Amino acid sequence: MLLWVSRLVSVFLTTSSVCLSTSWAFHDCIEASVQMRQRRENHVGFLAGRSPLLTSPPCAGGICVGMKNGPHQGGNASYPVAWNGINGTFVHSTMTVPEYPRKLDGITYYLWTDIFFGDGGLGRMNQFVPQLLLGDVLDGSSGYPDYKPSWKHHDTWVFGAHYFFETWNATSNRTNAHAAYGKLYPTFPGETLYTSFQLLTQNPHSSNKDDIITPQWILTMGVVGDQTRVSRLVVDQPYMGMGAHWQNPTTSWLEPSYQNMCINACWEIYGAFNAAHLPSSGGHYNLTIAQPSSNNNEAKYNFTYWVRDEGNGVCPWCKVTESHKDAVQTVLIDVGVRISDNQLSFGKATTAVVTG
Ligand SMILES: *[C@@H]1O[C@H](CO)[C@@H](O)[C@H](O)[C@H]1NC(C)=O
Ligand SMILES: *[C@@H]1O[C@H](CO)[C@@H](O)[C@H](O)[C@H]1NC(C)=O
Ligand SMILES: *[C@@H]1O[C@H](CO)[C@@H](O)[C@H](O)[C@H]1NC(C)=O
Ligand SMILES: *[C@@H]1O[C@H](CO)[C@@H](O)[C@H](O)[C@H]1NC(C)=O
Ligand SMILES: *[C@@H]1O[C@H](CO)[C@@H](O)[C@H](O)[C@H]1NC(C)=O
Ligand SMILES: *[C@@H]1O[C@H](CO)[C@@H](O)[C@H](O)[C@H]1NC(C)=O
């Protein structure tokens, strides 16, 4: 036990200089989000600041909720990634599996809670996004060493832990997409899925000090109450280790580029501009963001408010509430879908809505 404690103390000393220099990673986080926003703008619709009462098309295709003044809004809000030497910021989220849409033709459904980071080296996108999938979706990976993404059509819900990233190729002047995936599992309307992100040491009992300070991110997605459907992805290094050979190598999650995280929850649905193509029911998200217990004051930070930052707020619509204590934040999101001009399906219940 004493050995354990003294090892921790040395880790604090080693990592504290890293913790201090969070500011330049901040801009990388926003650069990444600009690209992500451009990609989604035509689909989910980035409508913050515009009228929420759009008449045409009636549905925005999707909805996102995130930290107020976060990257989706063009702002710089993010949370530092706390790390106490054995344990880091912990994000846990639950989400309802909604009823199927009445029409599926050609639509892509990604429903998720994500965290993403700034970029290091040739990396251009750094998103942990375990997701619930339906329709024409990116659902697989060639695995080591190229991590090429692959796509498939699904007529029923499936989910899996997922890391999406891009790398810059100067020769072709393009970014290349990459994916790492955990196992896919089926799930059914009405079930509750959980997603968790843990930053943990690879080997807390090792006598090798280098092992102790090299944490990995562990992505888990599963069905609440069913231990047989758990999709897990362990990410030892940024970009699945591809950055080890770059001119400016990147190999550890403790590097400054990854010291800030942005968190969102989205129904990212491509092409669903009417109610028939949205899921037929809404659902609930419950996010918990916890800082690790720590005697390192630098690991403490203030939580921000959460807001809808993509979608038109009408179809689908959402209600967001947030509460926090010193080291834990809870964000509750209710998502509702318009099923006719004057009705919304909200969870299992159906509520009349006054339109104006
Ligand atoms: C975020 O942006 C605001 C202005 O919008 C600025 O005052 C603040 O310093 C920025 N924070 C960081 C950490 O860059
Ligand atoms: C970069 O692009 C060039 C030209 O398209 C290609 O030949 C090369 O294989 C690519 N490099 C990587 C690492 O993908
Ligand atoms: C790289 O592509 C961008 C557009 O994506 C273009 O503006 C730029 O000129 C290209 N650079 C080179 C060297 O071809
Ligand atoms: C949200 O999740 C937290 C942590 O699991 C739990 O304590 C809380 O009761 C949940 N809230 C709701 C409304 O389900
Ligand atoms: C890490 O921190 C989380 C949240 O603070 C806590 O639930 C978990 O038990 C901790 N894990 C370890 C291994 O200390
Ligand atoms: C957190 O908020 C408190 C109260 O508003 C403020 O005094 C403190 O400086 C803030 N801490 C950080 C790290 O922003």
Radius of gyration: 20 Å
Number of helices: 3
| Number of DSSP E strands | 20
N-C termini distance: 65 Å
Relative strand content:
35-45%
Give the structural class: mainly beta
Structure ligands: 2-acetamido-2-deoxy-beta-D-glucopyranose
Largest sheet: 11 strands, antiparallel
List keywords for this structure.
single chain; 356 residues; mainly beta; eleven-stranded antiparallel sheet; nine-stranded antiparallel sheet; disordered N terminus; disordered C terminus; binds 2-acetamido-2-deoxy-beta-D-glucopyranose
Explained architecture:
With 356 residues, the chain is mainly beta. Helices cover 12% and strands 43% of the residues. The protein has 3 helices and 20 strands. The protein has helices at residues 2-20, 23-41, 209-212, and strands at residues 63-67, 79-80, 90-96, 108-117, 123-128, 131-141, 149-160, 162-169, 174-181, 185-186, 192-201, 215-223, 226-235, 260-270, 283-290, 306-310, 317-324, 328-340, 343-346, 349-352. The longest helix is centred in the first third of the chain and has 19 residues, at 2-20. The protein has one domain. The site of one 2-acetamido-2-deoxy-beta-D-glucopyranose (NAG) has 2 residues, from loops. Keywords: Signal. Residues 1-25 form the signal peptide.
